[in-house]
Amino acid sequence: MSDSKPTVPYWHLYTDDDEVSRQKRCEMTQFELKSMQPPAAPQWQGEKHHDGMSVMVTVQPVGWEGAWHENPSPQWIIPLSGRWYVESMDGMRVEMGPGEISFGEDQGTTERDGRKGHMSGTVGDEPAVLMVVQFDSKRETITPCRFR
């Protein structure tokens, strides 16, 4: 087993100080090598975040496209199969597939040119199956790349 600390990339969709949604590529780097439950072998574990959460799986049909909207609450979105995209108000479009992670935290945007929050939809000819982990609470201040 490698003793090198891993890094896990993710996209952070956030609201900037001008109330415009943007996306930034971030990395989780704070991992500790330990057993989840002895006697299981050690594995790299990231920081635990304690907040009430809901977990669901969604299936976006082929050709699905959502209207411009904000995430209902801060949420991790993890594609399980298929591909999907997120377009932020600044025009950046990111496409993701299995193993790529997005943290949606674009609450508090101000509508500009018919855009508020983000647009998302499926890519390709198969449904996008997404696991969504929604936080129960919202943060007053949004800091890009807050998960380290």
UniProtKB/TrEMBL annotation:
Cross-referenced SUPFAM superfamilies: RmlC-like cupins
The annotated region (Disordered) lies at: 97-125
CDD domains registered for this protein in UniProt: cupin_BLL0285-like
Q: Which domain of life is it from?
A: Bacteria
Any idea what this protein is called? Cupin domain-containing protein
Query: What is the originating organism of this protein?
Result: Aureimonas phyllosphaerae
